[in-house]
Design brief:
- With 703 residues, this protein is α/β, with parallel strands linked by helices.
- 19% of the residues lie in helices and 19% in strands.
- It is built from 14 helices and 28 strands.
- The termini are far apart.
Length: 703
């Protein structure tokens, strides 16, 4: 038996000291607690079991013990005794091995069995265990947060595993689908013009939380909010994933790329009343989850079986501690909060009204000094209908939002739905109809056309309907309102005219995305026409359907080149880096926008209009552009605004033209000699002013 000491109630988790390790875990309602110590990851039973004495090793609701001689790398877990009374909200089961909610590394994933954790009986041999971690031993080599402002950010939503898992990635077999594999592909991100990667969940998640025969791919099934997902590491040692993850962050920072994590503080992998007991359920079920009136059942505002009780003091501290840890110890630059409006529900699941003055975890996060300067991005809705787009930006001072209306409205405009022109105008201007605050950065609107959840950009123009049979849910899963259009035929086609139209529509979407005020977000693979064959809910497709196909980099190099040049073009112009709403004006010395129609200064806002034209001007920077988005199925001629003497319009973009003529740098762009431009059906143009060299008069000199 080890000689043990009482220990301390702070900090939570396992903390390394020079002479040993302090363990501390919360449980209000446990009647007994045992700390299990293991010699190896595959050990079927603990080497030591330490029973905590409630009179010596418990302070208030915190169980703690100090074990001399232990070091970083020690494997541990818990068993908790208490009442098993589901109707009263308690689910203690002392046969279950429980993961510490504050564990920083996890082992046992190769033997892990979700089914064993879901039924009666001892699951020790197939349970996940934590590993004691000392963060002070890693050399960050002076790494610092890039702190790139939203106004100069281009976000790339990506999947760590899927980015390099494909055999054609060129990454060595042992590094495919890993943090190390991503490091090797940083030059690709640089060339594309990306300033921030938004990683789908990398908290340890349950790949078995899915229908039989499939694998959870996206990772929205969190087991622990501190440990990086072990399967994304090429290293097999106990703490290797931590070092490899930090190596990835450091390498991205070196190249000026921020790292944003998609975090899931709305539910966990423990699911409904039929789900497994992995950690929170077995430690204090009614503390961690919002329960129904009959506390046997879980309130399911997440659509995933349970809802984390984010505004309980213990849970809100867990969330804040997790965020602080990822910023301070792992150097993360920001977070995207999945189904963030759940965090504005009280402990009974009711929305917290702002006017009541009640503090919620969102306010606590925003006010935290450790998180100051990080990007905080809300997905401002949940699965139970609580829709809060606009509220995070309106009520909070630092949170930004995924602009869901931008996605839906731009999709409808580009596919020529009626009545979309006035709404489209608002989206171009950073959605002042949604985000009306004048004292905040307009780039807190994160604009996107596609994301992981839904069609890829290629499929958006190739399918009218979802095709999700591979998910084994009878095609019932996934959204039904995609605002997509297949351009004439469902799915793949050899029809060259349909393919030309699809290519044009893709470029139209991208042009709208990057020419609109706000922060653009691009989905991994859209720049090379990645397809999921019409599957708009590929959460369980950990295969080539979801993985980045590196062969498409060459096959669709024309589109990739277009995207690179478009991002580079926008990055260089100050008109697209404004933090205040553009003035809508005919003329101003400040950055401003002027609306047009086919005739100058006469925009067509009618129900039947399918086009929008505008000029962008920033006189102080000598930036003048003219832009047309023509979603009409016929060509239209647009009058061009007059320019100063010696200046001419030059064509930068015309999405109707084949590559490489669809995009030109200003220095080589074709001059427009006419005072109008015929815009092809379903296409976009960008013209830019270029000053010419005035001819020198030929004076005849005489003596």
């Amino acid at each position: 038996m080890l000689e043990i000491l009482p220990g301390e109630s702070f900090p939570l988790g396992a903390t390394v000291h020079p002479t040993g390790v302090n363990f501390c875990i919360f449980s209000e309602n446990a009647t007994a607690m045992r700390l299990l110590l293991f010699d190896s990851a595959d050990a079927k039973q603990p080497t030591e079991t330490i029973r905590l004495d409630s009179k010596i090793n418990k302070t208030f609701y915190y169980w703690h013990v100090f074990v001399p001689g232990l070091k970083a790398g020690q494997i541990y877990a818990y068993r908790a005794n208490g009442e098993f009374a589901p109707k009263k909200g308690q689910r203690f089961d002392n046969t279950k091995v429980l993961l510490d909610p504050y564990a920083k590394a996890i082992v046992g994933e190769s033997a892990y069995d979700r089914t064993a954790a879901s039924k009666m009986g001892d699951n020790c041999a197939v349970a996940l265990k934590g590993v004691v971690f000392d963060p002070s031993t890693y050399d960050w080599q002076g790494d610092r947060h890039p702190r790139i402002p939203y106004a100069r950010s281009v976000i790339y939503e990506m999947h760590v595993g899927g980015f390099t898992r494909n055999p054609n990635s060129g990454v060595s077999a042992e590094k495919r689908g890993t943090y190390a594999g991503l490091i090797e592909k940083i030059p690709y991100l640089q060339e594309l013009g990306i300033t921030a990667v938004e990683l789908l969940p990398v908290h340890q998640f349950d790949p078995q939380d899915v229908r039989p025969g499939l694998k959870n791919y996206w990772g929205y099934s969190t087991i622990n909010f501190f440990a990086p997902h072990k399967a994304y590491s090429s290293r097999r040692d106990r703490l290797g994933a931590l070092d490899e993850f930090r190596d990835m962050v450091k390498a991205l920072h070196t190249e000026g790329i921020e790292v944003i994590l998609d975090v899931v503080f709305n539910h966990t992998a423990e699911g409904s009343e039929q789900g497994p007991t992995l950690s929170f359920k077995g430690l204090d079920n009614k503390t961690y989850y919002i329960l129904e009136e009959d506390q046997t059942y879980y309130s399911n505002y997440s659509g995933c079986g349970n809802t984390l009780k984010g505004n309980h003091p213990v849970v809100s501290r867990l969330i804040l501690d997790s965020l602080r840890y990822w910023v301070s110890e792992m150097h993360i630059d920001g977070f995207r909060f999945d189904l963030a409006t759940i965090l504005s529900r009280n402990t009974f699941g009711e929305p917290i009204e702002a006017k009541t003055g009640m503090m919620d975890v969102i306010s606590i996060i925003e006010a935290d000094p450790v998180l100051a300067g990080t990007k905080l991005i809300a997905e401002a809705w949940d699965a139970a209908g609580l829709y809060g787009v606009g509220q995070f930006v309106e009520l909070a001072d630092w949170f930004s939002e995924w602009n869901g209306p931008f996605r839906d409205d731009v999709r409808q405009f580009v596919k020529s739905d009626p009545g979309m022109v006035d709404t489209m105008a608002a989206r171009i201007l950073a959605s002042p109809d949604i985000y009306s605050r004048l004292d905040t950065d307009i780039n807190r609107s994160v604009n996107f056309i596609t994301c992981h959840d839904g069609f890829t950009l290629n499929d958006l123009v190739s399918y009218n309907d979802k095709h999700n049979l591979a998910n084994n849910e009878g095609d019932r899963d996934g959204g039904n309102h995609n605002f997509s259009w297949n351009c004439g035929k469902e799915g793949e086609t050899n029809d060259s005219e349909i393919e030309k139209l699809r290519s044009r529509q893709i470029k139209n979407f991208l042009t709208v995305l990057f020419l609109s005020q706000g922060t653009p977000m691009l989905l991994m693979g859209d720049e090379i026409r990645h397809t999921q064959n019409g599957n708009n809910n590929a959460y369980c497709q950990d295969n080539e359907l979801s993985w980045f196909d590196w062969d498409l980099v060459e096959k669709n190099s024309d589109l990739l080149g277009f995207v690179k040049k478009l991002i580079n073009f926008v990055h260089k112009l100050e008109i697209f880096c404004q933090e205040e709403f553009l003035k809508v004006s005919l003329k101003s010395s400040q950055p401003h926008l002027t609306w047009h129609g086919t005739k100058l200064y006469k925009p067509n806002w009618t129900e039947d209009s399918h086009y929008i034209a505008f000029s962008l001007s920033y006189p102080a920077e000598e930036e003048h552009l003219y832009v047309v988005f023509n979603a009409y199925w016929k060509p239209l001629k647009f009058q061009l605004p007059p320019l100063n003497l010696g200046s001419h319009w030059h064509r930068i973009v015309d999405t109707a033209l084949p590559a490489p003529d669809d995009f030109a740098e200003l220095k080589t762009a074709e001059r427009i000699y006419d005072n109008s431009y015929k815009v092809a059906p379903r296409s976009s143009i960008i013209l830019m002013e270029k000053r010419g060299i005035l001819p020198i008069p030929n004076f005849h000199l005489s003596n």
